Amino acid sequence: MSTKDYLEKDYYKTLGVAKGASADDIKKSYRKLARKYHPDANEGDPKAEARFKEISEAYTVLSDEGRRKEYDEARSMFGGGVRMPGSGTGGGGYNFDLGDLFGSAGGAGGRLGDLLGGVFGNRGGAGTTTGTRNRPRRGADVETETTLSFSDAVNGATVSLRLTGEGPCPVCKGTGAKAGTVPRVCPTCEGTGQGSRNLGSFAFSEPCRTCRGRGLVVDDPCQTCSGSGRAMSTRTVQARIPAGVDDGQRIKLANKGARGEHGGPAGDLYVRVHVQPHPHGTFGRSGTNLTITVPVTFPEAALGAEVKVPSLGGMPVSLKIPAGTPSGRTFRVRGKGVRRKDGTVGDLLVTVTVQVPPTLTDKAKSALEQFRDATAGPDLRAELLRNAND
């Protein structure tokens, strides 16, 4: 890809966001498009794969605050076309090489050179000169999603994540050459990966057209990557999800993202966790506390009782209900909830509901009638009726 092609690419349009979009908006749009065009979801569709690569390339730049700023600066300076004083017909113009601007050490120019060099594909190699092209570059951050059961979210779990992205070709190990052969130094640029195009009044520095900026020429290309040394690959990452994760929480796994270039560190992997409800709705969550609703009989609530209450993944616990407990009262069982980051554990909140039997035997009905007569007193609703008429 030439410098001109790069500057004319609109990464914001690729991701479908405005230039002033926030980092969260960019991430949301990327995740939506990545799921839609992911090779796993569009097997055998080369257009979807190409679109996925475009989306990944755009997100790699726009998700990095520094690279996004440099991209915006480059687009602002040169995106609308370059017109220099004296560039029209007739002699007297300014003759300079934009490579001096992009490759100058320090300042914004050096950062722009680093950005453009990476996007143009200058990945270095044998014979490559020192400079921004072979400077170690951190790999891009990667985002993915996983779904956990209710119990795994509370207790923590190790999950296998299948990640697909561009990286060194697994067949040629990134050389671009067929097995048993090796690339040779590009005779045009002598391994620098850089060429210069004369536009009349000035020279425009760009990747060498012979080797496409790699500094190497492949005579017998690898059939998998067609000599580019890059290919879409799939890898499986074992990720430990900590105990107590919430639904929708974003977990950071350091150095589990895309591989770095030229010896640079790998990026980070961000995992968005979705938690399934507990089967049959037995347990719920309230922060670091577990919740459960337990039915009790009227005699148990009125006379008091000791009942068994289930705990998540453990033995039932005994809960003492005092006499005269109303329906809807909540009790707290210490240390039977969700583990917190500091190692302490939340509680189990037990709400009791008094159950009314749908049918009664003659004996039960007679006993309740005797109870009613024995507890007869003032009308409980008399004050309520009076207040309603005020």
Key phrases:
390 residues, Chaperone, DNAj Protein, Chain A, alpha+beta, three-stranded mixed sheet, four-stranded mixed sheet, 15 strands, elongated, HSP40/DNAj peptide-binding domain
Written account of the structure:
- The model is unreliable at 79-134 (pLDDT under 50).
- The longest helix has 17 residues, at 46-62.
- The protein has eleven helices and 15 strands.
- Helix 3 runs antiparallel to helix 4 (46-62) and helix 5 (65-78) packs across helix 7 (107-120).
- Helix content is 28%, strand content 23%.
- Strand 10 (284-286) and strand 11 (289-297) form a beta hairpin.
- The chain is elongated, with a radius of gyration of 34 Å.
- It is an alpha+beta fold and 390 residues long.
- Among the domains are: 139-276, Ribbon (Chaperone, DNAj Protein, Chain A), CATH 2.10.230; 290-375, HSP40/DNAj peptide-binding domain, CATH 2.60.260.
- The strands form six sheets. It has a four-stranded mixed beta sheet. The chain has a three-stranded mixed beta sheet with strand order 1-9-8.
- The protein has helices spanning 3-8, 11-15, 23-37, 46-62, 65-78, 98-103, 107-120, 150-155, 298-303, 362-374, 382-388, and strands at residues 142-148, 157-168, 184-185, 194-198, 203-207, 216-217, 230-241, 250-253, 269-275, 284-286, 289-297, 305-309, 317-321, 330-333, 348-355.
The outline comes out as: elongated
CATH topology tier name of the domain at 139-276: Chaperone, DNAj Protein, Chain A
Radius of gyration, whole Å:
34 Å
Mean pLDDT: 80
Structural class: alpha+beta
Strand fraction: 15-25%
Number of strand elements: 15
Uncertain segments: 79-134
CATH architecture name of the domain at 139-276? Ribbon
Fourth-level CATH superfamily of the domain at 139-276:
Heat shock protein DnaJ, cysteine-rich domain
Number of helices: 11
- Run of helices and strands: HHHHHHHEHEEEEEEEEEEHEEEEHH
How widely separated are the two ends? 82 Å
**Helix content class:** 25-40%
- Give the C-level CATH assignment of the domain at 139-276: Mainly Beta
Biggest sheet record: 4 strands, mixed
Spatial sequence of strands, sheet with the most strands: 10-11-15-14
